[in-house]
Design brief:
The complex is a heterodimer of chains A (331) and B (322). Chain A has 331 residues and is an alpha/beta fold. Helices cover 45% and strands 9% of the residues of chain A. In chain A, helix 1 packs antiparallel against helix 10 (270-280) and helix 1 crosses helix 11 (285-308). The radius of gyration of chain A is 20 Å and the shape is globular. The mean pLDDT of chain A is 97. Chain B folds into two domains: 2-182, 3-Layer(aba) Sandwich (Rossmann fold); 194-321, Rossmann fold (3-Layer(aba) Sandwich), CATH 3.40.50.920. In chain B, strand 6 (143-145), helix 7 (150-162) and strand 7 form a beta-alpha-beta unit. The model of chain B has no long low-confidence stretch (mean pLDDT 98). Classes of the chains: A alpha/beta (331), B alpha/beta (322). The complex binds thiamine diphosphate (TPP).
């Protein structure tokens, strides 16, 4: 159904980014399962792409981001080069982190992406601190600090939100709630009324959004980002979405009903919804299909580039550890 | 040359660095009133509340936030109050701060000075007395500083503030008021020990406040004709391997003394290194004096049983040189 004053260009940009994220992750999954080229665990955000696309569209390139182990979408949306990301997943030279971090530590400081994190919840205080640094430096960037619903049960959630509120820091906290914490339903292990209620108790302004509606995420992100930038104070977004696959690419998710999952995917896939919105706004199916095939071609090329790249030089094991007392290549 | 206490020496260096570099700032509980040991006294008045910042009682938050602020280009001094409470921020230090530069392929740095006051002072019991310096020496990415004199607390604080690596900076709580001469122009190279006493009969390796104990023991030994070569390591990472090996090559004897628990302690690393690389020079089995592997008690007579004293060092040295 068409919205009044529907911004088609923005709608297309959102779909393009979601298609790119999905194509990146499907390609990475193939590289892991079929090609055995991605050796470490990867956590896919398939079904959650609207959050990354909607959020990042509201940011400036010089704004900052911290993310989680499930951070490919955020990183790509922030502007990282997919070939460099794919090389990182394959542990190759030219990867965003030189092949030394892999999926769970993906980062591209050049586009303000200050790192995914392998420790659940840890990025919450780090993002607050990046905003603290921005405040001390006196510029007008903001930080978007993304974490999962499971992360709200660790201490850094309290410490980071309180910190940002007490010091008046320009950070937008985003709880990307996909309902699952690895193999456990988050609701089963979470008391009270959840992320937003906890944030409200700390005095943060809270918005809740349908995180599978890219347009709605983009709208709320635009207003929250402006609010954070202007007020130089934190805000909180609770984006409800759904993890379509397993926790990692090799998790069959046999602990939940496959039928329920299939029904959720059929009725509430963010890319299908965005295609429908654009179709209703008069965009031809062929044009929408082309967005998808372009994204798939882009990511296939990224994988080819990654496959062609060599592994890092062996001495990289010992570089960038520290200047003072740097390691020698012997114990 | 000026006369300063150990606490004043670090405070003076910090104030000088803050004057010279607006990116340096301090954050920790109670800093606005000078910090629990007065190490920040007067700094708030000069630099204001943003650069001498109070913090909620959120050790993980302090470390994580300071790390985030370091990644965007500031240079935080992180006050953990007691080395014991710093354990609440271990994930942030070990998994984030120490690893960021490497994991992100050199894209980031964490230029942070992480102050963790350590050690036994009278009757502070098991949660306010620990010496855990060897834990951090085990973590790649970290520099570990354990200064023992006003001179070193001045010079090494300056060096730590100038470093682009995270420096775990452990001051000993027992010697905040220790006075000494400070030469503000004294040069410092990381990983060099200070020879606190020269001698040819035995190499005595120590650090932190135990270096002060060892220096007194060396004077007693000298009066008996035993020459102790007392090397205050000053840093556990990097540590002065070459200095220790050179000394042992001359003396043929190695005694390591430290306040922390012996088992798994850094003294074992020193002994192992000497055995591996200077075995032929040894004229006696190397020895360690350290705390037995128990917990630090409250009652003074019990607490004393864990201390490495001057008498113990003298007795061990005598036996080794007999
Ligand atoms: C401190 C910590 N505990 C446990 C884990 C293992 N782990 C990795 S992801 C995950 C689930 C996290 O759930 P959530 O925060 O909701 O993020 P999601 O995986 O759903 O994106 C767990 C338990 C970890 N990485 N870090």
């Amino acid at each position: 159904m068409s919205r009044p004053n529907y911004d088609r260009d923005r709608g297309l940009a959102l779909l393009t980014m979601m298609e790119r994220i999905r194509a990146f992750e499907r390609t990475a999954e193939q590289a892991a399962v079929r090609d055995q080229l991605v050796l470490g665990a990867i956590h896919l955000s398939i079904g959650q792409e609207a959050v990354a696309a909607g959020l990042v569209g509201a940011l400036r390139r010089d704004d900052l981001m911290v993310s989680t182990h499930r951070g490919h979408g955020h990183t790509l949306a922030k502007g990282a080069d997919p070939a460099a990301m794919m090389k990182e997943l394959l542990g190759r030279q030219g990867g965003c982190c030189g092949g030394k971090g892999g999926s769970m530590h993906i980062a591209d400081f050049g586009v303000g992406m200050l790192g995914a994190n392998g420790v659940v919840s840890a990025n919450i205080t780090i993002g607050a601190g990046a905003a603290h640094g921005v405040k001390l430096l006196g510029d007008d960037r903001i930080v978007v600090d993304i974490f999962g619903d499971g992360a709200i049960n660790r201490g850094p959630f309290l410490e980071g939100l309180n910190w940002a509120a007490v010091f008046g820091l320009p950070v937008l906290f985003v709880c990307e709630d996909n309902e699952w914490s690895a193999t456990t339903r988050t609701a089963d292990m979470t008391a009270g009324d959840g992320a937003g209620a906890r944030a409200r108790a700390i005095g943060l302004p809270v918005e809740v959004v349908d995180g599978n509606d890219a347009e709605a995420v983009a709208d709320v992100a635009r207003s929250l980002v402006a609010r954070v930038r202007d007020s130089r104070a934190p805000a909180f977004l609770h984006a409800r979405t759904f993890r379509q696959g397993g926790h990692t690419y090799f998790d069959p998710a046999s602990y939940r009903s496959a039928d329920d999952t299939a029904a959720r995917i059929a009725s509430d896939d963010p890319i299908d919804r965005q295609r429908a919105a654009l179709g209703a706004a008069g965009v031809a199916d062929a044009d929408l299909d082309r967005l998808r095939s372009d994204a798939e071609a882009e990511m296939a090329a990224a994988l080819e580039a990654a496959k062609a790249a060599p592994f890092p030089d062996a001495d990289q094991t010992f570089t960038d550890v520290q200047d003072i007392g740097a390691p020698e290549a012997a114990a | 040359m000026s006369r300063m206490t150990y606490a004043e020496a670090a405070r003076t260096a910090l104030a000088e660095a803050m004057r010279a570099d607006p990116r340096v700032w301090c954050v920790g509980e109670d800093l606005g009133r000078g910090g629990v040991f007065g190490q920040y006294k007067g700094l708030r008045e000069e630099f204001g509340p943003d650069r001498v910042s109070d913090a909620p009682i959120s050790e993980a938050g302090i470390m994580g936030a300071a790390f985030g602020a370091a990644m965007v280009g500031t240079r935080p001094v992180v006050e953990m109050r007691f080395a014991d409470f710093a354990l609440c921020a271990t994930d942030e230090l070990v998994n984030q701060v120490a690893k960021a530069r490497f994991m992100f392929g050199g894209q980031s740095r964490a230029p942070m000075v992480i102050r963790k006051p350590m050690g036994m002072w009278r009757s502070s019991a098991a949660q306010h007395s620990q010496s855990l310096e060897s834990w951090y020496a085990h973590i790649p990415g970290l520099v570990v500083a354990v200064p023992s004199t006003p001179q070193d607390n001045y010079t090494m604080m300056h060096a730590a503030l100038a470093a682009d690596d995270p420096v775990v900076y452990m001051e000993h709580k027992n010697i905040w008021a220790l006075e000494g001469d400070v030469d503000v122009g004294e040069p410092y190279d990381w990983g060099t020990a200070r020879r606190r006493h020269a001698g040819d009969d035995l190499t005595l390796v120590c650090w932190s406040d135990t270096a002060n104990v060892a220096e007194r023991a060396a004077a007693t030994l000298a009066a008996e004709g035993i020459g102790a070569d007392v090397l205050d390591l000053r840093t556990l990472w990097p540590w002065d391997r070459d200095g220790v090996l050179d000394s042992v090559a001359r003396t043929g004897r190695l005694l390591v003394a430290h306040e922390s628990v012996g088992a798994g302690g850094f003294g074992g690393e020193v002994v192992a290194t000497v055995c591996q690389h200077a075995f032929d020079a040894l004229r006696a089995p190397p020895r360690r004096l350290a705390a037995p592997r128990s917990l630090i008690p409250y009652a003074p007579n019990l607490e004393d049983r864990l201390r490495v004293t001057e008498d113990m060092i003298v007795a061990a040295a005598r036996e080794m040189c007999a």
